[in-house]
Amino acid sequence: MAEVVGIIEQQTAPAEETQRTTDGFHLVIDALKLNDIDTIFGLVGIPITDLARLAQAEGMRFIGFRHEQHAGNAAAIAGYMTQKPGICLTVSAPGFLNGLTALANATTNCFPMILISGSSEREIVDLQQGDYEEMDQLNAAKPYAKAAYRVLHAEDIGVGVARAIRAAVSGRPGGVYLDLPAKLLAQTIDAVMAQQSLIKVVDAAPRQLPSPASVKRAIDLLKGAKRPLILLGKGAAYAQADAEIRAFVEKSGIPYLPMSMAKGLLPDTHPQSASAARSFVLAEADVVVLVGARLNWLLSHGKGKTWGAPKQFVQIDISPTEIDSNVAIAAPVVGDIGSCVTALVAAIDEGFTKPSVEWTGAITERKSKNLAKMAATLEKNPSPMNFHSALRAIRDVLKTRPDINVVNEGANTLDYARSIIDMYEPRKRFDSGTWGIMGIGMGFAIGAAVTSGKPVVAIEGDSAFGFSGMELETICRYDLPVCTIVFNNNGVYRGTDVNPTGGKDVAPTVFVKNARYDKMIEAFGGVGFHATTPEELTAALLEAIASGKPTLINAVIDEAAGTESGRLTNLNPQSAAMKK
Ligand code: ADP
Ligand code: TPW
Known about the structure:
This protein is of the alpha/beta class. The protein contains 25 helices and 19 strands.
């Protein structure tokens, strides 16, 4: 109640007085607005309820969630889509910790976001006197954030917000924590001085030009290549250098592979896409150009069987310390992707021989063979429906709507959807990313819908969906055009495991059989569909998209269809050993 009284007093104080003073609440909102931030994703409570109210009163959009992790994920994906930091607002200790997973995930994925949390008073926290929701949040955030700041004086709010924005988006983007003690928010300060203390950040993510010598080294390496390959990562999609990247690919004639979130940067149907011959090109290429992609586990660390014979790398990245992180990089090109690729295109314009027909022809041949094999698998119509027949139905609908955002998580659901669902436009695919994390589903869906104003189709394993399922209420509350498709195979990976002891408990991977996820959304006024065949799934998805309403399709998948850990079986040695 004290919170409400505080803000109402502020609003009803005599005009003369409100002109003279302002407070921390108002300054935080003013600082964000001054920097063109128009949306906050969050969850209210002491001490930030009034901050959320005020944001709304001042014309910002406040999207309230049921759990902070999903608000944080929404903020992170908004940051990835726009190059402006997404904002997540939480209460202290537990709310902060719930948001911290999303902050860490954003940092890991190089998404710019700012987690703003209210906190208890320093005097009490530092003496550990047991305040309401007491915690040393700044220190807890530091290892998981690109930067972490605390503001103690109202006149420093402008600096705090400016530093947070700059840290989130400059260089390699990441998550930033901004700690706002309750006492700060209530501090009053002279209004004129306050306005003068605000900072509008100029050139928050400055271009970083590559050195001419690094560009020449890369081009020389490429000129000597017999089997070159370009690998586009989500850094390339984030950079919004779409035309430059297309020019680099097309003018060089080099085949390319998109990492999952770079799908659509060039349409997946592009003739130079080598996606359908992925294993072949990774093993056979002799020079590989990494554009905003790290040689982490998703690329087998750049070595081993996947990569075949030893090869040389060009790596374009804004972070100099990324270079040589897993294998030697023969030609690092450090700078922002737009500038780096522009420099490479200029060098290509001066003369460059396209890759041999021997190389491109071999890829085309391999692609046709693999595509024919995949087409045969997709055409099968088993009953019950499996991952492939369900994804064929979804693929055919999404082909007609390239503007739709796709969110994707799960194990098998992620692995199969990634290769079966083509993307046609940049920054439309959002998934489990660098960690392979479960739980991004509804947060990313809400963030993408709110940020783009376009429909979202979230393709979710039933386990994956469970991590954020309660946000269906948020989707319904804001009437967002999100269609969630739950691939329901009764468990984590699949639903057929048994408890070897014959005891009462089901196996660790098994869920309630034949759950009706479609009924969940009906509880909040959304529309549920139950689909057991590809035809029913097609009809439901078409109706769902046409309605523009919150919908959920419970897609019943053969419970025996999945494989353990999807395609990560090699990272699951214990399970492989147990099965021997
Ligand atoms: P993927 O998972 O798709 O392979 P990663 O997240 O591993 O992609 O890699 C993204 C890389 O892109 C990071 O190393 C990051 O430093 C880099 N990056 C992000 N934005 C830019 C940019 N604007 N210019 C250059 N590099 C960037
Ligand atoms: C935060 C471990 C990886 S994949 C997965 C889990 C629990 C779910 C797979 O089952 P699902 O998919 O979604 O039904 P499918 O298509 O195979 O049927 N906790 C977190 N992140 C991860 N990655 C896990 C656990 C995991």
